[in-house]
Amino acid sequence: MWKRGKSTGTTANRQSAIRKRSKTSGVMITQYLVNMPEGKSTPDFQCKPVAVTIEKGKLAVFKAVVTGDPKPDVSWRRAKGTLSDKEKFQTKYDESTEEHILEVMSVAETDTYKCFAANEYGKAVCTTTLTVTEGKSSSTNPTDFRKLLKKSKVERADGESDERFWDAMLKADRNDYERICSEFGVKDLHLILKKLDEKKKEKSQNKRKIKAEEREDALFECVLTHPLPNITWMGKGNILEDGEKYNLTMSDHKLIHRLLIKDCQMLDKGIYSAVVGNTSCNAWLVVEGITRRPRKTTVARGARTDIEKVAQEQQLKIQGEMEKLLAEVNAKYGAVHITDKLSLEELALEELTLILSTGGKYSKVTGQGVQFICGLTDVSAIINEIAELTCKLSSEDCEGAWFRDGKQVSQTNIYTLYFCSGTVLCSPTHPSYCDSGSINFHTMPNEFITEKKKKTGPLFDLEDLSAFTEPKTVKVGHNAIFKLHFLGHKPIKIQWFREGEELQDDNNTRIEKSASQSRLLLSRCQRKDTGEIKIKLKNEHGFTEALSRLIVLDKPTPPLGPAEVTESSATCIEFRWRPPKDDGGSPVINYIMERQQVGRNTWKKIAEIPGVSSYRDTGVERGRKYCYRIRAVTAEGTSEVMETEEMQAGTLAFPGPPAPPKVASAFDDCINLSWAPPSNTGGSRILGYILEKRKKGSNLWSVVNANDELIKEKKYAVKDVVAGMEYEFRVTAINLSGAGEFSSPSEFVFARDPKMRPRFTNNKMKSFFVVRAGNSVRITVNFEASPRPAIIWLKDNVPVTKRITISNSDGSSQLLIPSSERSDSGIYSILVKNLVGQETLSAEVRVTDDPKPPGPVELEENVPGTVTVIWEPSPDEKRDDRLHYTVSKLDSTKHSWVTVADRLFNNKFTVCNVMHGREYHFRVYAKNDMGISAPSESPTWEFLVSVPTMKDCDLRCAPSFIVPLKLHTAPKGYECYMSCAVKGNPKPRITWYRNHISLNTNTNYYISNTCGVCTMLILRVGPKDMGEYSVIAENSLGRAECSTILNVRGEKKIYWLYLQ
Known about the structure:
By secondary structure, the chain is mainly beta. Residues 558-654, 657-754, 853-949 form the Fibronectin type-III domain.
């Protein structure tokens, strides 16, 4: 059997996974995630394994096709064992059909198989059965059968007919069944378990009932085997307590316990139980009568039994056990009298057992002696966590022992016993349900009793749970029973669900509940009752759930119409239909086909076909009309009939003409044609087409394709043409009756290549290439043109030299420079030209290398607080117009170089914010499209400030430019950085102008004034930025102006003469 773990509270929380049905019946899918990633899916069965019925000893094969993304892993399991025997069970995967195959070699017994498909997003499972039948060779002759029958009767006479055997089986635990069968010589355990279940059902049906009228009292009584002061009474799954409604009493000898239910109402009817430990007895309370009647003072009882007589017999039995123990103690230790004049006859049964176990050292004192200072209390322990039971005595000089349910507990790995300074401790190290019970400590007359109860959610019996989780299959109209035993802290709330809806008692549903089990009975099941069955148990410490599935089998519904005719000719009628909406839980095996000719009254069975919903009837007469009746057949029976409408077998009807062929394209060696099918097919499907051609000026039509090679598609490429000739085409359709009319001829078309202007097709080709000197340069251009064009490559509008290799093909051209030089830099263009037109495509190639470093670097201080860095140009500056410079600074207070300027196209830069008292180092790098050069370093610069002699003087002065603006020529698209230095006191106001228009408020220019150094940055220089730039400094003492010209490289230069 497939085992499933206990459904604890944690497991219940994991059951947030989504369960859903598959489109394939009988497949259950579990989805782990609520929101699936895009493109991903849970496993599913596209084709599930089919049930197999086969003779014993033959090969059985199961096949399944699964889907899912990622691809699921497929595994197989069986109910009666494992699949570890590779010689008997073989799993395969057929890549061509994508089928997962399980082969069972030489089948021996009927079994149930499950197929699992799982990936990281979920799992799918389906079940199939293998039924093994006996072959003809395995039949038994009558004499052998009589011998077997005689033998089975002898075995039955030995054990099964013994009433003691059945009494022992009814009272025993499940684990002792096999032992009892072996003791009584019973061999067929499987048959015994079936009969045992029947006897238990019979016993439960014959439970004692107490009938009470409404408003009457009801009395329940029971007799115990040993006297107990307290037992647990339960009613309909709830613990009952002594109060106004219930009265709990017991006899003086504590053997008879009674439950009195006062003023019975209709709501009080149900099962009531008396529970002692793991043992219980039940009885029904049936309340009869009508409402609104006066309260009755009579008491309703069950079948009259002499309770007192049964109790007296039990007392005599206990007294006999006591006498045996007394005799054993007297024989072993003599007729010893206990101190304080108490004889052995006054001791209890457990105390006599303790004397035997302690070697006669046990004593009982009634006067002054050892007393309990602190007694035992009830302990509720959690499973697998340490529990302690502690009591404290008034004296340290004493002896005693621990008992659990009357049996002495010793020091073991399970129990830790401790005694020190009058404190006695008993500690179960890993408590489980088996440790629950009454635990006592005995030493002197005082005694305290405690019970340990484990705090946890309810747990299912593993054997019942394994059987419960298996799908239960019943036929329609039959009853389905689900039952489970369980354990747990009371009270336990029990709920049953079907497809997520809670079930309540009604005409077809009956729920039975008791302290340790629950039973669900679904009467007269219908097909609609198929679905998931769930039981939920809940107490104050948690809850658990168990799932099963109910499958109700029924005969299928009729096939679905209307039938669709796919072919109707003079010799056959082919049609199809849809499978039944509900197959009744079993796959469709066959379809029964019947036919009636219109005008006749009789129906004729013509075929019984496999479960494919289409049929081709070839036994029809031309022009006749027919009706068909279809029935679906499954293992559960045959469906009702589905009758089709009238269908007529065709006559010799030829198809109509197709549409005239249209020319899709034409070339020197091929003409591509297409056409539309005929609007009239003649009542049957089109088998193909015949195409004919004719030259212009000729009356002879010739067939393009052979008669035995029909054109299946509605297009064709005619390759049997002569370049430059003009053709027309026509086409005819062919059906089952033959060839139809030809279409109208197409338009005349020349067999020649079409004229097309050149067009470049590689739109993603780069327009700028940077190549290191010495490397190869390769430019490939793809194009379309007809007729074939002439191709010319140019460099800077001049044809390329012979050292450059040009390779041309039908649709592309390639330029190759094997080893490039700096002189190869330039703009390369390709000119593609034919009779229709021409196209040009250009790309710039720059051949360069890592730049050489700049020359020596000098530092000057023209303005206080600033340093001007001046360097000699790099030797590559004249050969590379894209070469520029980068300046880095190292402050003596820091340990890293900082870039202060980049993309400089001149050989000077002024560094601001130089702090006095610090040392500075500067580096200048040359950069181009290929890389960066080694640095040129400056000498160390230390900025010292000399403090002049303080004297009163007038520091005010009119503005004047210390460093004027320089002429600037910048490449198009690059930055331009203008700067000048001005002095004046008060601090002058600085205004920038371009062509006498103020730029201070223009956001396209970045303007700053730091300590008299005025700067302006243009991020991307364009033709619109060319012109005269001026700076005007004004204060209260005067005004000064400085101007310059900005030219953009590649544009017409501006020459300016400035007169001051």
